[in-house]
Amino acid sequence: MRSLDDKTIVDSWNKNALQWTRAVRAGQIESRTLLTNKAIVESILSHNPDSVLDIGCGEGWLIRELAPSVSRLAGIDAVPDLISQAEAAGGGDFFVASYGELSDLSLGNLFDLVVCNFSLLGNESVDELFRSIPSLLKPAGVFMIQTLHPVVACGDLPYVDGWREGSWSGFGDEFVEPAPWYFRTLDSWAALFSASGFQLAGMREPIYPDTGQPASVIFTLIMN
């Protein structure tokens, strides 16, 4: 039985980087094309940022989407093949780095907004990332997170924090070894925000029109 931990997440994405790039660019992920892509773009642009840092940027779609409206854009991801794809498509500056290496990067000036769009999948790595975010933001900066909605993503399992098996259900046969992910309740998210020096300034829940269920939750945080 394989380990469920932060390292296994990165290992999985290294093995599925090109498959993921093709799926994103072909619009094969229904929840994203229907709701969540538009929701995060709208939420970011509502703050009129001049600079945005996308942490866990993947193949860079969000950077490219923001490029016409935001003058300075940067993306970070731990998977070299994803960053190569992002660089080839353009739109901003891209860096290979794990969450633990953020403080060692030279990113220039601070950012108006830092975003993590479905990229907070781990446990210790997420705690480590939260400790680094204040050093990346301008004094009035915004930290925005879109993630699976805990109430829906919990499924039939107990509503408690813990590691969950991943799945590529609905994707093609070319995907292998799905990444595990660490489930957090809403209370746990709130506790993490508070412990890291953030306060919740807003919360948005994109809703599927056909089922009335939330596709995700978007947290907007500001520093205390």
- Spatial gap, N to C terminus: 42 Å
Oligomeric state of this protein: single chain
CATH topology (level 3) name: Rossmann fold
The second-level CATH architecture is 3-Layer(aba) Sandwich
- How many structural domains? 1
Tell me what portion of residues adopts beta-strand conformation: 15-25%
Low-confidence segments, ≥5 residues, pLDDT <50?
none
Task: Name the CATH superfamily assignment.
Answer: Vaccinia Virus protein VP39
How many strands appear in the DSSP assignment?
A: 9
How big is the Rg? Answer: 16 Å
Q: Could you give the topology of this structure?
A:
Layout: H1 6-25, H2 30-45, E1 51-55, H3 61-66, E2 72-77, H4 80-89, E3 93-96, E4 111-117, H5 124-132, E5 137-147, H6 150-153, E6 162-164, E7 181-183, H7 186-195, E8 198-204, E9 217-223
Parallel strand pairs: 1-2, 1-4, 2-3, 4-5
Antiparallel strand pairs: 5-9, 6-7, 8-9
